[in-house]
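The data layer described in this paper is built around a simple, fixed record for each protein. Such a record has a labelled line for the sequence and another for the backbone structure tokens. For reference, a complete record is included directly beneath this paragraph.
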Amino acid sequence: MPKDKLTDYSATNASNTDVGGVNTDEGMLPSAVNNAIREVMTHLKNFAAGTDGIDVLSLADDTATNAIKLQAPSSVTTTTTLTLPDGDGTDGQVLSTDGSGALSFVNTTPAPSLIINGDMAVSQRGTSETGITTPRYAQAPDRFAANINIGTWTASQSTTVPSGQGFSNSYKYECTTANASPAASGYLILDTRIEAQNLQHLAYGTSSAKSVTVSFWVRSNKTGTTTLEMYQADAAKYITGNYTINAADTWEYKEITFIGNTADVINNDNGQGLILSWWLGSGSDYNGGTQSTGSWKTTTNERASTYNLADTVGNTFYLTGVKMEVGSATPFLHESYGENLAKCQRYYFEPDNNSNNRYAYWRGDVTNGNVYSIGVEFPVSMRALPTITVLDGLRSGFSAGVTANAETNSSCRLNGTSNVTQAARYFFQAVQADAEL
């Protein structure tokens, strides 16, 4: 039969008697030699161009004794082109596809994250809060703040998560009062703040300033392109990257890389270093300019896209698996709940807010009018001297005015005034200690 492509040729020389219809059998005419050579050259060209493939590519060693073979599947549903990266990567990296056939070297060993509670597992304040209209740390996952003045919202710790990724919780926004036309100064943000002294290895303000990659899982019923911003508090500068929610009510994984700021130092202190802000709505003060991403800026009206999650009651936004690391993204590093909780308690501490599980701060005999005081140690040393709020407690023999004051970053003192003279009186009390950035 005619040999019309390289894969038609036989390993037996005597069987290759026809090249593209040109007779190459013994005794062939000399005039056919030229035509046969040209036909083979065409076959080689087609092979190099990928139009005439082979089932197995064999790469022999220098002595042609052994070979490494690359073989296609027995059944291929569509023609696919895989584009190899330049270079050979670094130790421990593997080839990964972007979903369109472009291969790149990626790390497989999870690196630590600069974000605390990125899996949304810790929620000390509670699991849901309604009617939010102003910026606050809501009864939702720790370390993520509801930064809002557009519409009215419910913030909660949700159990809706991407399948198979190891997460149990997400942060959920849900619109309960819409605002389709935000005021110029309007903003709808979910943010997390990173302590400055934890960022010194980024070398900001030097020529060696490092790039970081933020990775996360996101889901919303409202599709469109919106903005993730990284704000450097000490310099009052920001850099943005846009991402697109492509499909409604579908978890999607995103990665955004931000270049380091070579011009401005992050102060080595316990203040705000970097703030990550997921912009979900904004007015013209923030989106009225021509937005460009990927560079450090101070122009306020170029910070966000025109995406507006607040335009319809019932709109939702979910976020989990948030990670920020130097260089390229690696898989999410799951910590134990205890490790995660201890990190969160540096910024906020509240015992289980249940009347049957209060801290028993004082119990004993009392004298009417006397003040009884006791020191309370926090689980971890907090970022700064915290603001103390006394929660409702259980009292017998004490007036309602149990007070508290922070003494150090690690402790506070509670004071109770008795209103009887009697044995075995008590006050059980709990406190909130707040040292958020």
